[in-house]
Amino acid sequence: MQVEIITPDKEIFKGEAILVQLPGLDGSFEILNNHAPLISALREGKIKVKKTKDSGDSFYDIKGGVIEVLNNRVLILAE
Question: Could you tell me the domains of the chain?
């Protein structure tokens, strides 16, 4: 799936990933390929991005934001 993490200042990450873990308002949740459409608010915490099955995890700190998932595209607007 295509993942973009964008802040008001810059684009933090753009690329393919097999898993994204996010800090939701009610707890942590994960997005995988072919996830149902979703819009959700995010709280302060870390976003985990796993690019491939054999790759290490990448972590990005955020202060909050929103996520939209649609047609295997994940857009994260973060602070």
Answer: 2-78 (2.60.15.10)
